[in-house]
Amino acid sequence: MQGIRRFRTLTDGGGVRLELTPSTASPLAIDVAESAEVRIQRLISENPVIIFSRAACCMCHVMKRLLSTIGVHPTVIELDDDEIGALTAAAAESSDSSASSSSSAAAAAAAAPAVFIGGTRVGGLESLVALHLSGHLVPRLVEVGVLSGYDN
Q1: Per the omega criterion (within 30 degrees of 0), is the bond before 113 cis?
Q2: CA separation for the pair 19, 31 (Å, rounded)
Q3: What pTM was estimated for this model as a whole?
Q4: Could you say which of 22, 63, 111, 132 would form a disulfide bridge with 87 (CB–CB 3.0 to 4.6 Å)?
Q5: Which helix (H) or strand (E) holds 78?
Q6: Angle ∠(139,53,20) on CA atoms, nearest 5
Q7: Beta bridge partners of 50
């Protein structure tokens, strides 16, 4: 398969990580002309459950474990430092809240890790755990079609 630079098995049992290089010949081609904001927004709309994280983020690991315990295996995207600002912009588009930040650095730090379910930003680890403890996480996952066989 063209476009795959390397692969490795993830240590937490979460599957295989593929690192893709830009290529137009691959069915997994990355459009290098696509801005980070547009790419993040596209990924949010294409994946029912997606986590954006920084490399080696322990909070992301906990989010993946919680979701996999329920039976959901989210798409996980590790963002580079220069892409974190794009996540902040995408989160603002997907979020219902219109809270403003005093600095872009603080907003970027709060942006990752972030989980989106059904195209809507849930938030970080605390928000995901709160949703789970309140009993609203499983019904939301059923609603977006990633879980079946649960009674609401």
Answers
A1: yes
A2: 15
A3: 0.70
A4: 111
A5: strand 75-78
A6: 110
A7: 75, 116
**What is the DSSP pairing of strand 4-9 with strand 16-20?**
antiparallel
- Is residue 122 within 8 Å of 131, Cβ to Cβ? yes
As a whole number of angstroms, the longest Cα–Cα distance in the chain is: 46
The stretches of the chain forming alpha helices (DSSP H) are: 36-46, 58-70, 84-94, 104-111, 125-133, 137-143
Tokens of 25: 């010949």
Q: How many residues does the chain have?
A: 152
Contact between 49 and 116 (Cβ < 8 Å): yes
For 24-33, give one letter per residue: b (16+ CB within 10 A) or e: eeeeeeeeee
Q: Which two tokens stand for residue 131?
A: 């949703």
